[in-house]
Amino acid sequence: MADIVDAIIVGAGLSGLQAALDLHESGRSIIVLEARDRVGGKTNSTEREDGKGSHVWGYCERFNLTPVKQNIKGLVASEDADGSCHMFPFGELPKFEKSDVDGIVKLRDMAEAASLNPETFQKPKRDELDSISLEQWCRDFGVGTKSLLTARVWCRGTLGQDPCEVSALAYLEICRGAMGLVNLRHDGKHGAQYLRVQEGTQSISIGISKLLPAGTIKLSTPVASITQQTPKLYTVTTSNGDTFKARKVIISIPGPTYKNIIFDPPLPQQKLLYTTAARYGTFVKHICLFKMPFWNRQGACGLAQSFRGPINHCRDTSVPDRGNYALTTFLCAGPGRKWLSLIKEERTEVILKQLGSLFGVGYETVKSEFIDSITAKWTEDRWAGWGCPFAATPPGVIGDGWKANQKLGGLYFVGTELTDEWRGYMEGALRSGKRGAALAMADLQTEDVRL
């Protein structure tokens, strides 16, 4: 029995590592199996070639990391569907016609109220909202084109999907977990975008991994199957034929990647429905590095949004103390897919031209300040499910109230898409990992008492 551990954790992203740490610190034996050759999941920090709060905040303090506040001092850039651009003060709305602004405010306030109302997520309202798309929900309020385009920016910026692809319930659940739509979109204090980590987000995963016993994490070890031998024993087999046995298994992988694993017995129909239906959009993070922050000379803070694309939104991700100046752009949905089809030189030219228009300086100025760019490889990552930031469901999947994170015997499901709080964010991943570990520990404790 010495080769049987208390729990196997599948996946060494933030949620899996948090679950592993909680179990280890409670005195339980664990093994972590990770398909990649590194820890961190979709957090993968890349160094520049030139060398240049919450559970998350707790780890920043524990590992002596350097938080960087999001720059919100200055103007925000806005691009209309016809390519016309203007800037407006942070905290205000774009300078559209009054009727358009009123429509955006109406839709924002309705989404905010719905996401904070508990009845939204209870039957019968729950079923009603899951039966329609987010786009239909917005249209039902009778708002105009600018409002619908704004909602598209929101949805693309959160999921890389258009509002017609996501159920209204799914999106409002995301808003609820962030304490409302406004907070989800906010870059100021307490908002979802408030802090960054100077050393890179992967540094938290690396730090947690070092708190685990040596040899606990098995890298480059994809899981091929999970078999329940008895009610209290599971065998996990890897793609290279190695087997591991445990009393419990915590699964910390994205929904779309469940199809990489054979479950015996098979997952129940509701779980299969979720893992089959939950899908990524197109969400590309493209970081542009510059010699100097040219946008600051225009009085801009680096935040921008576009109805046209391919950039859906961007923000200043500079670290001025290190002479590191950058704009991180996000290319989403259809415009993002079209951009991905271009060769590298064309991609760069398109981005620099749009940044020149957004911030009113022109292509030549942006090009003269440009150093290089870094593109996240999420769309090429099999173990992430070929996407990011997290999978969401279309209409008709989650309305019955069954939770995708519901445990099945000795199987526990964690991940940033499976949390009710801060879904899609690092904080959500950590909270989900803690929840899964707590469930597993409670069941292990019950079994120990029975023994």
Automatic annotation (TrEMBL):
FAD binds at S15, E34, A35, V223, E417. The keyword ATP-binding does not apply. Substrate binds at F330. It holds the Pfam family Amino_oxidase. Belongs to the flavin monoamine oxidase family. This is Amine oxidase. It catalyses: a secondary aliphatic amine + O2 + H2O = a primary amine + an aldehyde + H2O2. The keyword Oxidoreductase applies. Its EC number is 1.4.3.-. One of its GO terms (molecular function) is monoamine oxidase activity. Its cofactor is FAD. Keywords: FAD, Flavoprotein, Oxidoreductase. Residues 14-439 form the Amine oxidase domain. InterPro entries: Amino_oxidase (IPR002937), FAD/NAD-bd_sf (IPR036188), Flavin_amine_oxidase (IPR001613), Flavin_MAO (IPR050703).
